[in-house]
Design a protein that fits this description.
By secondary structure, the chain is mainly α. 61% of the residues lie in helices and 5% in strands. It contains 19 helices and five strands. A three-stranded antiparallel β-sheet has the order 3-5-4. Strands 1-2 form a two-stranded antiparallel sheet. The longest helix has 22 residues.
């Protein structure tokens, strides 16, 4: 068991410190910190031995989880850094870590200023623009927008992690800008007309290839942008006419990082996934949306930057089989949700010639966001219950 081996590693480390005549109070504090790290975080979030911890786990613990669940002081955060530095240097010197593994950890543990900045940012109030937007904006009219309380932890993740600039936020702003300048009425079938669809598509940084007689669902980007904008009250549809809400003005004034956080939150928490897919698959889409945090827990277990191949004939209840079944049995995920997640810079994917998902590759930002939602699932249900909820994916 991970617990037994890790406890042995902690014991050996403490005996080495004692043999080197280290202060017994330092030994006791290091032992307590390592055990807390192991039992409160590692075994709950990333079940593995302490010698299998990598830099991503260290960053997620000290730059996120510790701040949310422990708080503490800046000096306590630095004390954990020092304990980890001593412990993992010991594992390297005793042959438990390769040079590459130690270098990866050492680089993360030497980033003292990064973790202090995470601490300061977490306990500092968000910018005023964020407060205005979340509260519906400093509106003067008689019908203020309802509050949109986007997860602060999500905002911190997008703010503190270096990541490439994804296309989604800019394209979404271009989409909203078009709707604000051109009157658009939906067809009787609830679609944006072809003439507008083509003009909107040409505005995007990377236009989609649309067939000559395209319908709105042929543009996955326009489809999910419209449903997202409705779900977070940036646009309203009445009598077929699309109108901009007061909130859209405040959204467009937000900085790019905050806009990205709003879009991720909207996709994962506010947009009903059955509004994206084929109406015939509504039951399957609703089931997938209901179990999205369990889906996140499976995605969070993937290694950033490493391609994961979908199993075409999944058997058993291991995470790979569960994730493969989730993708296979819920068309809305492969057709729209993965596309949206790629637009937001959380993952990439490839498809086979039949249109089925072939592989996934999550990004570092994606790992952290999915870990956040996986943690939410585990906070309401034990991890075993989260996995159990996904075992019956065929019933969706």
């Amino acid at each position: 068991m991970e617990c037994e081996k890790s406890e042995q590693l902690i014991g050996e480390y403490c005996r080495t410190l004692t043999a080197a005549r280290a202060d017994r109070r330092l030994v006791a504090r290091d032992r307590d910190r390592l055990r807390f790290f192991l039992h409160a975080y590692v075994l709950e979030e990333w079940p593995r031995d302490l010698d299998r911890v990598d830099s991503e786990i260290i960053r997620d613990f000290l730059g996120g989880w510790f701040l949310r669940h422990v708080g503490g002081t800046r000096s306590e955060l630095i004390s954990y850094l020092a304990t980890f530095q001593r412990f993992y240097e010991h594992l390297y010197q005793t042959g438990r870590l390769s040079a590459a593994e130690y270098d990866d950890l050492a680089a993360a543990l030497s980033a003292r200023q990064y973790f202090l900045a995470c601490y300061d940012d977490y306990f500092r109030r968000p910018p005023d623009a964020w407060d205005d937007f979340a509260a519906g904006g400093p509106l003067k009219d008689d019908a203020p927008a309802a509050a949109l309380n986007v997860n602060r932890q999500l905002w911190m993740l997008t703010k503190n992690l270096e990541h490439p600039d994804p296309a989604g936020p800019l394209d979404f702003s271009l989409f909203l800008d078009y709707l604000s300048h051109f009157p658009v009425r939906l067809t009787r079938a609830g679609r944006i007309p072809l003439s507008h669809l083509r003009r909107i598509n040409h505005r995007f940084r990377g236009p989609e290839e649309l067939p000559p007689s395209a319908r709105m669902e042929d543009s996955r980007r326009v489809s999910w942008f419209l449903r997202l904008a409705e779900s977070i009250d940036l646009v309203r549809v009445a009598g077929g006419a699309i109108t901009m809400s007061k909130r859209s003005e405040y959204y467009l004034d937000l900085d790019p990082v905050t806009r990205l956080a709003v879009m991720i939150d909207g996709l994962w928490n506010r947009l009903p996934w059955d509004r994206l897919g084929d109406p015939a698959d509504r039951k399957l889409s609703l089931w997938a949306c209901e179990h999205r945090d369990g889906f996140a827990s499976l995605l969070a277990d993937l290694s950033p930057g490493r391609e994961w191949l979908v199993d075409l004939n999944p058997e058993g209840d291991d995470p790979d089989a569960l994730l493969s079944r989730f993708l296979a049995y819920h068309p809305v995920v492969g057709d729209y949700v993965l596309f949206a997640l790629r637009e937001l810079g959380l993952l990439d994917f490839s498809v086979r010639h039949q249109g089925l998902v072939r592989s996934l590759t999550i990004t570092r930002l994606g790992r952290r966001v999915f870990s956040l939602y996986a943690g939410r699932a585990r906070s309401t249900s034990p991890q075993s219950a989260v996995v159990e909820s996904l075992r019956d994916a065929r019933r969706g």
